Amino acid sequence: MNKERILVLEDGSVYPGKAIGSDNFQVGELVFNTSMTGYQEILTDNSYCGQIVMMTYPLIGNYGINRDDSESIEPAVFGFVIKDYCEHPSNWRSQESLDEFLAKENIPGIYDVDTRALTRKIRDKGTMRAKLADADANVEEIVKEINETPVIHDQVERVSTHKLYSVPSRGLKVVLMDFGAKLGIVRELSSRGCDIVVVPYDTPYETIMNFRPDGVMLTNGPGNPEDVPEAIETIRQLMGKTVVFGICLGHQLIALANDAKTYKLKFGHRGGNHPVVFLDDGHVEITSQNHGYAVDADSLKDTDLVMTHQALNDKSCEGVRHTKYPVFSVQFHPEANAGPEDSKDLFDQFISMMEEEKNKKENAYA
C-alpha cells in the first residue's frame, strides 16, 4: 500500500503519490470527475475507455465496492487518481476494498496526489495525456512515449458487445445499439417491461429492422463520435422508420446523422451536479454527465433538429429533437448511476413515443 508511484503528464510535469491497484500502465487522456460519490459506477462506465480518471472529491474508497453497482462487466478505464484513499471501508454493502477491485480488474491507481492542483491545471490548459509509472521510472522516456503514442480511435469497438444478445420480456421491442452501454440504461428499459435486443455498434440497418423494433436506443460510449461513421449511416436510415432515442454519444451521433457538427470540449463535463434547462418550459434539472465532445448548437440551424436542452454552466447543447420524425436525444445521463435521478422520466417519454407510433401503424392496418 505504501509503494511510491508517479503520474507523468505530456508537458513533463510529475505528480508523486502512492500506488494502489495494478501496474498495467497505459498512456491515456487525463480527465476529472466532480462527483462526491459513485466511484464504482465511474470506474465501470465504459465511456472512460482510454482515459485516466481523477476524482476532485478528496476522500475515495470509504464505502468499498459491492456486487450491484457496476455499470459494465469489464471496466475499460486506463487509470485512477485520487487524493485520500480509505484503506478500510465501512459500509454494510461493501464486499471488497477499492484497491482489491482495481488489482482484480488490472487498473492502476495512485493516491496522495495534489488533485486540486491537477484539476486547476486541466481547467486552465485542457485535458492532457498522461501515464502512471513506478517512482523510479525515467521521466524523460515516459514523456517521449506519451507524446509519440498514437491517439486511439477504436474505443467504441473495444467496449461494444461483439455478439447479439437478448434481455427478454413481453413489452415493447427495443433494439439497443451498444456503443459502450451503461447497464443502468438496460435496467431502466427492463423496469418498463421492454423486450430488449442488444446489438454491436456496427450492426447494419437491415439487421436492426429484422427485429421489427418499436424503438431503437443509441447508448453512451467513449471517444470521438466521428470515429464511428458506420453508425452514423445506420442512424440516417433508421430515422423515419422507427422511434430513436439517443443518450450521450448516441445524442452526438444523431446530430452527425442530420449533418450537424460536434466539437471537443476543453476539459469536458464529468460529474453528478450539472444543471440543465429544459427549453420547452424553462425548468431546470440537475444531471449526471460524462462526455468530452458536444454538439455545435449553431450547426443545427440548417438541419431538421432543434435544441431542446441547454447546459446552464456553458450554454452548450444538451438535447435535440427531430422536427419530422420521432427522434430525440440528450447529452446527459437520465439513468444516472451515479448521480441525480431527476431525468428518468425521459425513458417514459421514449415509451410513450413508441406506443404512439405502434398505435398509428396498427390503426393504419385496421
Automatic annotation (TrEMBL):
Transmembrane segments: none
Gene3D superfamilies found in the cross-reference section: 3.40.50.880, Carbamoyl-phosphate synthase small subunit, N-terminal domain
Assigned EC number: 6.3.5.5
Domain Carbamoyl-phosphate synthase small subunit N-terminal: 3-133
Tagged with keyword Nucleotide-binding: yes
Catalytic residues of the enzyme: 248, 333, 335
A GO molecular-function annotation: carbamoyl-phosphate synthase (glutamine-hydrolyzing) activity
Binding site for L-glutamine: 47, 221, 223, 249, 252, 290, 292-293
Pathway(s) served: Amino-acid biosynthesis; L-arginine biosynthesis; carbamoyl phosphate from bicarbonate: step 1/1; Pyrimidine metabolism; UMP biosynthesis via de novo pathway; (S)-dihydroorotate from bicarbonate: step 1/3
Keywords: Amino-acid biosynthesis, Arginine biosynthesis, ATP-binding, Glutamine amidotransferase, Ligase, Nucleotide-binding, Pyrimidine biosynthesis
Region (CPSase): 1-172
Role played: Small subunit of the glutamine-dependent carbamoyl phosphate synthetase (CPSase). CPSase catalyzes the formation of carbamoyl phosphate from the ammonia moiety of glutamine, carbonate, and phosphate donated by ATP, constituting the first step of 2 biosynthetic pathways, one leading to arginine and/or urea and the other to pyrimidine nucleotides. The small subunit (glutamine amidotransferase) binds and cleaves glutamine to supply the large subunit with the substrate ammonia.
Protein family (similarity comment): Belongs to the CarA family.
Protein name: Carbamoyl phosphate synthase small chain
Organism: Ileibacterium valens
